[in-house]
Amino acid sequence: MSGLRNSPKYYLDDIDLKDVKALEMRLEALVQGEIKSVADLEDWIDLERTLMGRIQEAVTGHKIDFYRDTGNKLKRDMHLHDQTVVQPILLKYQGELDKKFCSCRFTGELHDSRYGAMKRVRTARLQRFCEVNIPLTVREKKLGVKYSEIRGAMTVDWEGETKPYAFVQALLDHQDRTIRQSAWMALAEARNKVKPDIDDIMNELVRLRHEMALNAGFGNYRDYMFQAKNREYSVQDCYDFHRAVERYIVPAWNRLADVFRSELGVNTYRPWDSTAKMLHSMPYTTVTELMDGVHAMLEKTDAYFAERFAFMRQHRLLDVESRPGKQMGGFMDPLPASKNAFVFANFSPSFTAIIALIHEMGHAIHIYLNNDFDEQNWRDEVTELYSHGMELLLLDRLGTFYPNEQEFKRAQREELRRSLGLLIGPLTRDMFEHWMYTHPDHTAQERDRKYLEICKRFRLSPVDASGLESEVAASWFDTIHFFLYPFYAIEYSISELGALQLFELYRADPKRGVTLYKQGASTDFNDSISDIYRRTGIEFDFSERIVKRIGEFLESQIEQLR
Fold first, then answer.
1. What is the distance between the terminal CA atoms of the chain, rounded to a whole angstrom?
2. Alpha carbon distance 276, 273 (integer Å)
């Protein structure tokens, strides 16, 4: 990190990615590298990891720069250059480097305890590598940039003023039902203005991704992505999970909705009622208050958690301020060369902003504990376990922002309602993507209808959306994952089941719960998902048995806070 302290940047940017010839020469030198022994192969892997880490950190930094200011042409052009010029070069050479690794006669002698994940990932990647897919991937990246530009520029007409989309989203939590309704309708109107452009982007993404899957020898993009993500479960397991949640979790979701409807004093539970959080006080007003409060929550839970947060704050590795032109949402990105993490969030002052920062810090603390900043080794079922887990470990610290006892309980209940929702909402998205990519010839109208149908079965099961069907049907485009991170949904629900198991242990013994969290989060990514979960004291299991038990536990915890 010492090299970054005196730098104007928060990330290493020591490779000129615009010098394409020099970049290709570096990569070609790796391809031509001589390997005469296992030791040579390990040295070659280290050289490759170092170079790729430096390149990836620069690419990631440029992306974050753009997301922080989507209206800046220089930042946009740099990010677009990375996506359309650098990425095709990396894809081409990644195929050659994978071939060199997999065909090397010494690869089989590498110990699985250290290189097992690398062998699996590279073998699978080589199997689906197809050079004709490179230009298609470039086009896919361009469409992602276009989506980000549209989303970052979205504003809402609010009370005679132009407000950022995220500002009005925060008003969905407002206690005044009239304001919630007005905000909901204003957001829907803002989406409607750009809906044709968004539909065009998704239409082309579906077409491109289907073509890529066929080129790689798969019947559809869903099956292609299952292999690309190295999933340790089947398509049928996903379908079984969908059914179990519909059987055991959706009824609990509906019962909780009845409680909220009663507390709101409304006869009909409308879409803007399902967003209300029953929290009367503003948790903070400035970014400094948000940062100070989250630091205090972490410090009360574990000294290491607080130390990492303080480090990131000091070194400008956190950007959680809401600004016009900033990409919406939140994420954590690794900076593999400097061995750091960057947390990004764009939410107006709200309960959601607090939880988003805690969630992304869970990701950051996980990779600091694990010391593996190479995303190709990650599995989302693991990474999301420790972000959801962090939220629940800090549940009893929400009094930092809500010192009033009644408000504190309401905040705790809201976090547990979020947990219940995470067993439902991501499955809505997962089912939607299964349908989209196994029906690649669908129209935009059919896509909206399918999304509405799935929402009514799951997330919006207790909601009366009559007269608002088209607005609800179009709301899928608020989900950035459909555009930039396809088939990244069911992992949220699987990992939430795991996090709730950890929360059970925490409830019985808080100190042991934190210890297990840190023990599991430190586990090598070479281990199976089952082994990593086991070291966290829980089961990697999303069968009907676990869904039923965890659903009952969660509902009982929520009931205690009424």
1. 47
2. 5
Domain locations along the chain: 2-129
Tens digit of each residue's pLDDT (9 = 90 or more) over 131-161 = 999 999 999 999 999 999 999 899 999 999 9
- 326: which DSSP letter? P
CA distance 456 to 459: 7
| CB-CB neighbours of 552 under 10 Å | 12
**What are residue 343's DSSP bridge partners?**
318, 332
Cα angle 196-197-200, degrees, rounded to a multiple of 5: 85
Q: Residue 173 pLDDT more than 90?
A: no
Q: Is 463 helix (H, G, I), strand (E, B) or coil?
A: coil
In sequence order, the 6+-apart residues with CB closer than 8 A to the CB of 159 are none
Tell me how far apart the alpha carbons of residues 562 and 559 are, in angstroms, rounded to a whole number. Answer: 5
Q: Are 187 and 155 in contact (CB under 8 A)?
A: no
Mean pLDDT of 118-139: 92
What φ, ψ does residue 335 adopt, rounded to 5°? -115, 90
- In tens, the pLDDT along 377-393 reads 889 999 999 999 999 99
Q: How far apart (Å, rounded) are the C-alpha atoms in residues 502 and 138?
A: 41
Residue 163 DSSP SS3: strand
pLDDT of residue 1: 38
Q: Which of 55, 35, 57, 38 is nearest to 114 (CA)?
A: 38
